[in-house]
Design goal:
The complex is a heterodimer. By secondary structure, chain A is α+β, with helices and mostly antiparallel strands. Helix content of chain A is 18%, strand content 39%. Chain B has 2 domains: 245 residues, Thrombin, subunit H (Beta Barrel), CATH 2.40.10.120; 77 residues, Pdz3 Domain, CATH 2.30.42. Classes of the chains: A alpha+beta, B alpha+beta. At the A-B interface, helix 1, helix 2 and strand 9 of A face helix 1 and strand 8 of B.
């Protein structure tokens, strides 16, 4: 994995070289000819394809911004990814130009806007910023970088050599000339893993700008080139951080956090027969706790068959810390798959950008609005006052405490009151009841007829459900957001899918010592996962929310699967009743 | 402005052709070329990269590459596109064209039986089409797309596909790099390409057209002494063929030539020059074969050759190259410096 060094592209001191000038001239000529060469009928495939490309560049070009520090010295590039003015760039761009957490972005309409740096990902060389003025702004969508193939069209836009006086981006065209590349970083940071290589010209100043596919989707952020002894400019090898990697870190960056990459704390090597074998598994790592030993064969990482040590390192670098990843191993002839939550790379990593509570709360609010919209259809829909459901709890075969196959409960809540969970026997007579009151953080078991054998996690799950109901029942404006923290990203593995969607994590303290982490889908806004952890005991329960259906205008999961802390059961919800 | 006029001409070609390629027009070329190049690793000296690229030109593992220090390593490793590691042994060097031919061998694991050790392949390869009727590749016209595939900056490792670059074939021209650039002995035809291909590790890359047909190989780095610009070019297929034929004895006339001896068609006055390295060695006579035409004409050890048949000879490569173009039945006129005097020597050809 020893590579010739590559260099970052921030242009701190503008040295406008002859190459740069000629380069701009070529671009100018390119645009002129592209328009002029179009025949009047435009019917031939070449003209059509050319027109499509020109249209694409005109359409997405305004999403590309020129970034400067406050003195407008030097600079890099960036791309806006939503109409509110959130944008992506390189970490080395904001680190260099935005010491005071502020800077300027020039848009192609010629206007300069103040920017605020949100979260950063120094390990992956990505940072997120926001235009502080009110939108809407032009933006580009993120594409699927896993679909990128060698030879695909690559369109790079940005502000090389800070040529642009009016903030319109320069455009360079080329091919994808390598996929799944690994470019080593500096002390673990600024590493380009599983990145995209292009032969479109990438030069100093292009840093942080987008790499587009032929459809105009952002498939990467360009930030590195290979350089020769000649100097620090394009020699035909540029590298872009892939969009699918960036997507996994966007929740944390949008929330103003320092995004951390994951590691297995285990290394692999190829043996004499070319098999990939773990040669080191760190003590106390999550991999070791999951039963992975030195000498085990690594078959697949997150469903991808691993072909080399390089391949493994490259793939691993695209995952955030604490993400669950299925690892398939062959242990003394036995194949098995463990889901391992990744440890953090470089845990002492610091950033000059201190986590900002205001940025975080803004991200929380955004997630809750998406949740309300997903649940109620729109953020302003009328909310119910209370709710009630029947829960049939089915115990997994052989699970601890599973004397019976199933139990039935009625769970209800009205307004701001406590959550009640009432046991019903098969003949309909009431059994014991658990009540949880979040205001006092107390949990009461009202066992009238028999001892109620309650597992420690039941309370945590209940109290979390309480929080969930509040989020559904109350308008976002009335929720006390100060109790909620955006905790970055997680991923849903509930349905056993390879990449079950990227989740925004909202954290809420439950009771005295527990923390509930709600995982809400970044795309649909739905709640897909809940992890509750009792800090002193370390007991943890995970709830997957499945089978979404719409009842009474409210879209809600009809199955919950609870795992952890000695209990394995599945809650099937039925008989929805909502109090208007 | 003047640059605008200059910039337009290459762009007309490059703007029309890429749109044809937007719908995946490079796929065929890429699919053809990527498995037919190997990554080479060898000796690294100073700023010379210890890695490079080679082109498979036979199913049993003959690999064309450029002459460089990396192939002087005790062990040269070649990695094929499936990630298999081979050892590469140098079959033939050509200082005048700056080319080398390697042969892949199984990696030396130590304990293997000697009998099966040399059998490797079959490999995917480019057929150089070097038969007796081999002519210049006329199918490539200026303005056509070309794809180069190799391992610049050794970005790819193991089974990872090598890097590609796309560009436009600009012209076929003669490279006379003597006057303005770093000393470079090759003076034959080159294919000029507008993609940046002059990078560490890139020499030896295969160049193909849009159909995936092999048209040339990226040559050694050529840098202008005046502007420090790099020249992006490929050695054409037919020039590679000349070397390949000499090296393998495939041409009818050279059918019996031993692999490491000079071509029999050329004149051989019996002079051996001092060999100390590759670049810019003065054409100093090291030894004169006993009874050879040169000895009979009075050539001595330590004579410095200044000119041959009226053409100045700057270094040993030029001497070799000029000799090659002289039929063996022709006399040679040498001018040499001997001590402080200049001596003219007429060498009569060897009688048969």
């Amino acid at each position: 994995m020893c590579k010739r060094p590559t260099f970052r592209l921030t242009l701190l001191t503008l040295a406008l070289s002859l190459e740069g000038a000629a380069f701009g001239a070529v671009l100018a000529a390119a645009v002129t000819i592209a328009r002029g060469a179009e025949p009047p009928d435009g019917a031939d495939p070449v003209s059509q394809a050319e027109r499509r490309r020109v249209e694409m560049i005109q359409r997405v070009g305004p999403s590309v911004v020129c970034l400067f520090d406050r003195n407008q010295r030097g600079g890099g590039s960036g791309v806006l990814i939503d109409p509110e003015g959130y944008g992506l760039t390189n970490y080395h761009v904001v680190a260099a130009i935005v010491e005071a957490k502020g800077g300027l972005a020039g848009l192609s309409d010629g206007k300069l806007h103040d920017i605020e740096v949100l979260g950063t990902d120094p390990t992956g060389d990505v940072a997120m910023f926001r235009l502080t003025d009110a939108g809407p702004f032009p933006y580009a969508s993120l594409g699927d970088s896993d679909a990128v193939r060698l030879g695909d069209t690559a369109v790079v836009m940005g502000n090389p050599f800070t040529l642009s006086e009016d903030y319109t981006p320069s455009v360079t065209l080329g091919l994808v000339t390598g996929v799944h590349r690994y470019q080593k970083g500096v002390k673990g940071n600024l590493t380009y893993t599983d990145c995209i290589q292009v032969d479109a010209s990438v030069n100093p100043g292009n840093s942080g700008g987008p790499l587009f596919n032929a459809a105009g989707e952002v498939i990467g952020i360009t930030g590195r080139i290979s350089v020769n002894t000649r100097g620090r400019y394009n020699v035909g090898l540029g590298y872009a951080i892939s969009s699918n990697q960036i997507k996994r870190f966007i929740p944390a960056m949008r929330a103003g956090l320092l995004a951390r990459h994951g590691t297995l704390q285990a290394t692999v090597d190829a043996d004499n027969e070319g098999r990939i074998v773990f040669n080191r598994v760190a003590a106390d790592s999550n991999a070791e706790k999951a039963g992975i030993h030195r000498g085990d064969r690594l078959l697949a990482f997150d469903g991808v068959p691993i072909t080399s040590g390089n391949h493994y390192a490259s793939l691993l670098g695209t995952y955030p810390a604490d993400w669950p990843v299925p690892i398939e191993i062959d242990q003394e002839g036995q194949r098995r798959t463990s889901i391992v939550r990744l440890d953090a790379v470089n845990p002492k990593l610091k950033t000059p950008f201190a986590p900002d509570r205001d940025i975080n709360i803004r991200a929380v609010e955004r997630v809750l609005r998406a949740f309300a919209k997903a649940t109620l259809g729109s953020a302003d829909a009328r909310r119910p006052m209370g709710w009630k459901w029947t829960v049939v709890r089915e115990f997994a075969q052989g699970a601890a405490g599973a004397a019976k196959a199933s139990e039935c409960y009625e769970v209800s809540q009205t307004g701001d009151g406590p959550v009640r969970m009432q046991r019903r026997y098969e003949d309909g007579s009431p059994g014991p009841m658990i009540t949880y009151d979040d205001h006092t953080a107390t949990q009461r078991v009202d066992a009238t007829s028999e001892a109620f054998d309650m597992a420690p996690d039941v309370g945590m799950v209940l109290s979390s459900l309480y929080v969930l109901q509040r989020w559904m029942l109350e308008p976002v404006e009335t929720i006390d957001l100060t109790k909620v923290t955006h905790g970055g990203a997680d991923r849903s593995v509930g349905e056993g899918s390879r990449d079950g969607g990227i989740l925004n994590v909202l954290e809420w303290p439950v009771g005295q010592n527990a923390v509930a982490k709600f995982g809400l889908d970044t795309e649909s806004g739905r709640l897909l996962q809940l992890r509750v952890r009792d800090v002193p005991s370390g007991a943890e329960a995970t709830v997957d929310f499945l089978d979404y259906r719409s009842v009474g205008g409210i879209t809600w999961p009809h199955r919950m699967e609870v795992r952890g802390a000695g209990l394995e059961y599945r809650d099937v919800l039925s008989n929805w009743e909502l109090t208007p | 402005m003047r640059w605008a006029t200059i910039a337009r001409y290459p762009l007309i070609a490059s703007l029309i052709a890429p749109v044809a390629a937007l719908g995946g027009g490079f796929d065929r070329a890429i699919d053809a070329v990527v498995p037919r190049v190997v990554k080479l690793y060898g000796l690294s000296v100073g700023s010379q990269a210890g890695y490079g690229t080679g082109v498979l030109v036979s199913s049993d593992g003959l690999v064309l590459t450029v002459l460089s220090l990396l192939i002087d390593a005790r062990r040269v490793r070649a990695v094929t596109s499936d990630g298999t590691v081979y050892e590469a042994e140098v079959v033939r060097r050509d200082p005048s064209r700056q080319l080398a031919l390697l042969r892949l061998k199984p990696p030396d694991h130590g304990g293997e039986a000697a009998g099966s050790r040399d059998a490797v392949g079959p490999f995917p390869y480019f057929d150089l089409k070097c038969g007796a009727d081999a002519t210049r590749e006329e199918s490539l016209r200026p303005g056509d797309w070309v794809i180069a595939a190799g391992n610049p900056f050794k970005v790819a490792e193991g089974a990872e596909p090598v890097s590609i670059a796309h560009g436009v074939f600009s012209a076929r021209t003669e490279l006379d790099a003597r006057r303005q650039v770093k000393e470079f002995p090759y003076r034959g035809d080159v294919l000029v390409i507008d993609a940046v291909t002059s990078n560490p590790g890139a020499p030896g890359s295969a160049v193909v057209d849009l159909e995936g047909r092999f048209v040339g190989m990226i040559g050694r780095e050529v840098v202008s002494n005046l502007t420090h610009t790099h020249f992006n070019y490929a050695v054409p297929r037919d020039v590679l063929c000349e070397f390949f034929n000499e090296a393998t004895g495939a041409m009818p006339r050279a059918a019996s030539a031993a692999i490491a001896s000079p071509s029999e068609a050329a004149v051989d006055p019996g002079i051996r020059l001092t060999r100390t390295g590759y670049r810019n060695i003065p054409p100093l006579v090291d030894r004169v074969r006993r009874g050879s035409p040169a000895e009979l004409a009075g050539v001595r050890k330590d004579d410095l050759i200044l000119s041959l048949n009226g053409k100045s000879v700057a270094n040993a490569e030029e001497y070799d190259e000029q000799l090659r173009s002289i039929p063996r039945d022709r006399p040679l006129d040498l001018v040499v410096r001997r001590g402080r005097s200049i001596v003219a020597i007429h060498i009569e050809p060897e009688k048969r």
